[in-house]
């Protein structure tokens, strides 16, 4: 179970009021490449009936198409590759628990060992830098539950994801967008230089289309949510949490 400290750790953007514009959640068109099988559905995350993660608010879909155009003006050989998009709150809760359990295994910690409480809290805090709490409070929705956030990378013309110098969802400083900046400046022609430039190309294309980037994650961008409003200096977000889908098939 997550501690109260983690649950109530507010983000700097959590103070932005949300006035939802009511736009619908729509399919991401197939002209935008998807990385499949979907990573969280493959883990058994509780998506509910007919809950397709490759959906976003229409304004976000439109901007994603624009971002791909921007990218291809500079790099015609590349495309965007979608890793994850809409994420219902039960899936957010499942993935936060999954990330904590994975990190505990990596650090050889036992969840129930009281003598390791401090190390366990460190894991929870580290995971909390990357995963939003699965808050049900309409004032602090997890970004992907609003249909405003997308996790994505770059792929080549065959749809193969490029090496960006770190896996999507890695817990650690390697995931920070500027992680390789210094090494890239020091050593042009190095792998760090390549990875930094790829991260920059992704961020530039997304930025030109109006998206804001998460400060800790090279792959996470949003348009219209609280983080976006905070980063752009806007008073309000335009997308809030969407209803949680049914978990059982409806009976006639
Ligand atoms: C960790 C990553 N997949 C992600 O989506 N992070 C954001 C901040 C979130 O949990 O909403
Ligand atoms: Zn994300």
Automatic annotation (TrEMBL):
- InterPro entries noted in UniProt: A_A_dipeptidase (IPR000755), Zn_M74/Hedgehog-like (IPR009045)
Per its UniProt record, what Gene3D superfamilies does this chain match? 3.30.1380.10
* CDD domains given in the database record: D-Ala-D-Ala_dipeptidase_like
Q: Which family does it belong to?
A: Belongs to the peptidase M15D family.
Read off the Pfam families from this record. Peptidase_M15 (PF01427)
Catalytic center at which residues? 217
Write down the HAMAP family for this protein, in alphabetical order: A_A_dipeptidase
The identity of this protein, by name, is D-alanyl-D-alanine dipeptidase
Q: What does the cofactor field's note say?
A: Binds 1 zinc ion per subunit.
**EC annotation?**
3.4.13.22
Give the top-level enzyme category. hydrolase
Q: Which cofactor does it need?
A: Zn(2+)
Organism, as annotated: Prochlorococcus marinus (strain MIT 9303)
Identify the gene encoding this protein: ddpX
Residues annotated to bind Zn(2+):
144, 151, 220
Task: Kindly list the biological process annotations in GO that this record carries.
Answer: cell wall organization; proteolysis
MF-aspect GO terms? D-Ala-D-Ala dipeptidase activity; metallopeptidase activity; zinc ion binding
Q: Which reaction does it catalyse?
A: D-alanyl-D-alanine + H2O = 2 D-alanine
Query: Which residue numbers mark the site Transition state stabilizer?
Result: 87
Q: Which UniProt keywords apply?
A: Cell wall biogenesis/degradation, Dipeptidase, Hydrolase, Metal-binding, Metalloprotease, Protease, Zinc
Reported function: Catalyzes hydrolysis of the D-alanyl-D-alanine dipeptide.
What are the TM regions of this chain, as residue ranges?
A: none
Signal peptide feature range:
none
């Amino acid at each position: 179970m997550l501690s109260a400290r983690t649950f109530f750790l507010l983000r700097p953007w959590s103070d932005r009021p949300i006035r939802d514009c009511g736009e619908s959640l729509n399919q991401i068109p197939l002209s935008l490449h998807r990385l499949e099988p979907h990573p969280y559905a493959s883990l058994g995350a509780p998506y509910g009936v007919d809950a397709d993660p490759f959906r976003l608010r229409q304004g976000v879909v439109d901007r994603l198409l624009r971002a791909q155009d921007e990218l291809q003006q500079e790099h015609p050989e590349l495309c965007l590759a979608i890793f994850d998009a809409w994420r219902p709150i039960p899936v957010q809760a499942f993935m936060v628990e999954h990330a904590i359990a994975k990190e505990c295994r990596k650090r050889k910690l036992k969840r129930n060992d009281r003598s390791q409480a401090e190390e366990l809290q460190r894991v929870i805090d580290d995971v909390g830098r990357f995963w939003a709490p699965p808050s049900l409070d309409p004032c602090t929705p997890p970004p992907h539950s609003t249909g405003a956030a997308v996790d994505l990378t770059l792929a080549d013309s065959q749809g193969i994801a490029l090496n960006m110098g770190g896996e999507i969802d890695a817990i650690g400083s390697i995931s920070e967008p500027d992680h390789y900046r210094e090494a890239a400046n020091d050593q042009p022609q190095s792998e760090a230089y390549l990875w930094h430039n790829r991260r920059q190309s992704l961020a530039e294309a997304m930025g030109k289309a109006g998206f804001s980037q998460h400060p800790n994650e090279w792959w996470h961008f949003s348009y219209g949510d609280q983080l976006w409003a905070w980063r752009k200096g806007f008073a309000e977000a335009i997308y809030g949490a969407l209803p949680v889908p049914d978990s059982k098939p409806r009976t006639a």
